[in-house]
Design brief:
The chain is an alpha/beta fold. Helices cover 40% and strands 16% of the residues. It is built from twelve helices and twelve strands. The strands form three sheets. Strands 3-2-1-4-5-6-10 form a seven-stranded parallel beta sheet, sandwiched between helices. A three-stranded mixed beta sheet has the order 7-9-11. Strand 5, helix 6 and strand 6 form a beta-alpha-beta unit. The longest helix is centred in the first third of the chain and has 24 residues. The C terminus is likely disordered.
């Protein structure tokens, strides 16, 4: 039986997708992950109980390894999530993001194309290469409007630029070689097992440690938020219904400013785990200098994708945040594993650690 290959499957979204696949489809699931700072073997613990699961440690840029994995497991679909993802880290090390996200994707595609081209015609028609991208490739929105799937890409951070470049490379493999690729652009994910440098887990863990809660600028930057379980379901829908050449938006329609998200986390923590001194967690909020090139707002036009995929988000923000908080409270061992590579410090000060501009937008 052909397997589904999930690159980056030990990461946040990838591991939830693996769990969903094992629970909902009969095919074998193979994870290829190099286990960098955010790719944790602990994220794959639920999957290891399935006889249909296989883990291979390695890099998507290792073409001989990719060639071996594709042939050995008779892969019938690839979901490509392997990437460096944190904007602040990309500000500190832009070339690393280009190497991993753009060049790594190109090398993976070369091997997938070689493998796909040799398949019998029926398997070639069924094959899919699903590329996970981000709403950040579109750039920044003002207070109104939504990004459409046909809008031009205008990335502003090194991370977004590396993903936009990868998107173009992926699409070129359809136009040039006929490889059946599908692109997915999602909004901001949150949920269990998210690496603590991201906003929601960072605020949860710093609050529990009685540390200041840093909010960039005035906190008015707006993002669209989706629970990772809904994203995993959406990727499953893309695998079964996605058409080659299409771009699908996995948006939620749930927009909140960064400050609103932090305050929501604080209110939930006040109820779930009150502070020892009796004060509210919101008193820990501190406004800090903004991130360089900080996009003001992202929002996706997703109604057409919902209709085409027969999918839409199910988890409300309030329920999702509460579930997420309780997960971090219940998994202190997982949190401790992440502290070996990240202790909650500020990133994104640029190469050499210079102070970000006070006039960043």
């Amino acid at each position: 039986m052909p397997a589904v290959l999930v690159t980056g499957g030990a990461g946040f979204i990838g591991s939830h997708l693996v769990d969903w696949l094992l629970a909902n489809i009969p095919d074998p699931v193979v994870v290829l992950d190099r286990l960098d700072y955010a790719g944790l073997e602990a994220n794959l613990e639920p999957a290891r109980h399935s006889p249909r699961f296989c883990f291979v440690r390695g890099d998507v840029a290792d073409q001989s390894l990719v060639r071996q994995v594709l042939a050995e497991h008779q892969v019938g679909a690839v979901v490509h999530l392997a990437a460096l993802t944190h904007v602040d880290r990309s500000i500190d090390a832009p070339s690393q993001f280009v190497a991993a996200n753009t060049l790594g994707t190109a090398r993976l595609l070369e091997e997938v194309l070689r493998y796909w081209s040799a398949l019998p015609q029926p398997q070639r028609r069924r094959f899919r290469f699903v590329h996970m991208s981000t709403d950040e490739v579109y750039g920044s929105l003002g207070p109104q409007g939504h990004f459409g799937t046909e809008d031009p890409l205008r990335p502003n951070s090194p991370y977004a630029a590396s993903k936009a470049a990868a998107d173009h490379v992926v699409q070129s493999f359809l136009a040039t070689y006929g490889l059946p690729v599908v692109l997915v652009r999602a909004c901001n994910n949150y949920g269990p097992r998210q690496f603590p440098e991201k906003l929601v887990p960072l605020m949860i863990l710093r609050a529990l440690d009685e540390q200041p809660l840093p909010v960039y600028g005035s906190g008015e930057n707006v993002r669209e938020w989706i629970h990772v379980h809904d994203t995993a379901r959406g990727l499953g829908a893309v695998l079964s219904r996605g058409e080659p050449g299409r771009v699908y938006h996995l948006g939620s329609g749930c927009e909140r400013s960064n400050l609103e998200i932090v305050r929501s986390v604080c209110r939930l923590l006040d109820r779930i785990r009150p502070r020892p001194n009796g004060e509210r967690y919101e008193h820990l909020i501190r406004f800090v200098s903004d991130r360089p090139g900080h996009d003001f707002r992202y929002a996706l036009a997703s109604a057409q994708s919902w209709q085409l995929l027969h999918w839409q988000p199910e988890t409300t923000l309030e329920d999702g945040l509460e579930q997420t908080i309780r997960w971090y409270l219940d998994h202190p061992e997982w949190v401790e594993r992440t502290r070996t590579s990240y202790q909650g410090q500020r990133l994104g000060l640029g190469p050499g650690g210079q102070k970000p501009s006070q006039h960043a937008t």
